[in-house]
Write a structure and sequence with these properties.
The chain has 1 helix and 7 strands; from the N terminus they run βαββββββ. The chain is mainly beta and 129 residues long. The relative contact order is 0.18. β5 and β6 form a beta hairpin.
Length: 129
Amino acid sequence: TNNPPNRKELKIWQQNLRKSLSAWEHLTRNLNPDVYDIACIQEPYLNPVKLANASSLGRYWDVLYLTNHHASPERTQTIILINKQLSKNKWHVIKINSPNVMAIELLGPLGKVHIYNVYNPCDHDNVLH
């Protein structure tokens, strides 16, 4: 997987892991870097030091945390995984001050694309207001 994908579509895996270690392990086993470009994860499993267990992903994926993740990691509800085949010169994080929303901007054959990863709790819709 050292060659960039030769395609014009963008493949995104989206999943709410409900902070489950077994769901995280399923994701890491099945997120194929030859198929997917981005993974938008809600309620990620975070280890005791409040990071995603990314050692098995590090070869193929960059893990993006919320802008303020390290200030209050217990509030992190979203992460984004970016396939390392996508040049870092072609994407950047859009800063959003929310524990429930993060975004990236991509530049490429499709033009400029914004991808938002939103966690909206089931008991209210305050995230959207």
